Amino acid sequence: MLTDLIAGAVADATARRAARSQADIERAAAARPPALDVLAALAASSRVKIIAEVKRASPSRGPLADIPDPADLAARYVRGGASAVSVLTEGRRFGGSLADLEAVRAAVDVPVLRKDFIVLPYQVFEARASGADLVLLMASALDQSELVELHDLVESLGMTALVETHDATELQRAIDVGAKVIGVNARNLATFELDRDLFGTLAGGIPQGTIKVAESAVSSAADVAHYRSAGADVVLVGEALVTSDPESTLAEFLAV
Ligand SMILES: O=P(O)(O)OC[C@@H](O)[C@@H](O)c1c[nH]c2ccccc12
């Protein structure tokens, strides 16, 4: 499944690169105002922080919400207290696009995450050219030399990488590249199984000073509290927000 998602993302990025050259996208990335300070926005604090995700659908859950106006949804997330907004830009199974990222970037002044299956430098330049501050790099989608190369590129463009892991080996690889923001995804993207305890199992191995993000499977304030007590600085929430009134759900989740 993960291989299909990556293959689709590469095919789509390759088609975009045929229409808009690498040199052109690099120029557009360089022309953007500088990326926002993600480490400040997500820094460990006495309260849990939330990255709120714009997510229309997923391969495991099918259609979730139409989201005709992603900019409006993102603005509601920020009013509700989100510290950053994640935008799924994968089009085939998640229903997202770079246009969604652009629209959200224009609507909010908090950091914006490009959430996609990023394996090519071109996709990193696209992220910056569309205004992203934070870029998802999935350890499971990259070998170590690719992870190092893309992590360096993200940082050289002034952005921050959220390095996603789902086992101890991937966590060690994230630490080895010097990731400053490390995520643990409760959903195994190979099997789609959920494990809310995985974050707690791995969190003890994340170095002090790293921002720890618990990703996926938050459906209630109790789930936020569970991740928080296991050491999460930040939780990343999609489905629960796009399927409810986001401002009141965020208020509940931030009250833990
Ligand atoms: O909708 P949820 O269960 O709240 O999950 C959000 C987010 O963690 C999830 O969308 C996600 C985490 N890692 C990913 C990698 C690719 C695509 C999607 C994801």
From TrEMBL:
Query: Per the record's keyword annotation, is Endoplasmic reticulum included, yes or no?
Result: no
Listed InterPro entries: Aldolase_TIM, Indole-3-glycerol_P_synth, Indole-3-glycerol_P_synth_dom, Indole-3-GlycerolPSynthase_CS, RibuloseP-bd_barrel
Q: Name one Pfam family in it.
A: IGPS
Which residues belong to the signal peptide in this entry? none
| The keyword Amino-acid biosynthesis belongs to this UniProt entry's keyword annotation | yes
The enzyme class is lyase
E.C. number: 4.1.1.48
What molecular functions are annotated in GO for this chain? Answer: indole-3-glycerol-phosphate synthase activity; phosphoribosylanthranilate isomerase activity
Task: Name the UniProt key words of this record, in alphabetical order.
Answer: Amino-acid biosynthesis, Aromatic amino acid biosynthesis, Decarboxylase, Lyase, Tryptophan biosynthesis
The residue ranges of the Indole-3-glycerol phosphate synthase domain are: 7-245
Reactions accelerated catalytically: 1-(2-carboxyphenylamino)-1-deoxy-D-ribulose 5-phosphate + H(+) = (1S,2R)-1-C-(indol-3-yl)glycerol 3-phosphate + CO2 + H2O
Q: Which domain of life is it from?
A: Bacteria
Write out the pathway annotation from the protein's UniProt entry.
Answer: Amino-acid biosynthesis; L-tryptophan biosynthesis; L-tryptophan from chorismate: step 4/5
Q: Which GO terms describe its biological process?
A: L-tryptophan biosynthetic process
Q: Which PANTHER family match?
A: INDOLE-3-GLYCEROL-PHOSPHATE SYNTHASE, TRYPTOPHAN BIOSYNTHESIS PROTEIN
The family note in this entry says: Belongs to the TrpC family.
Protein name according to UniProt: indole-3-glycerol-phosphate synthase
Native source organism of the sequence = Terrimesophilobacter mesophilus
Which gene codes for it? Answer: trpC
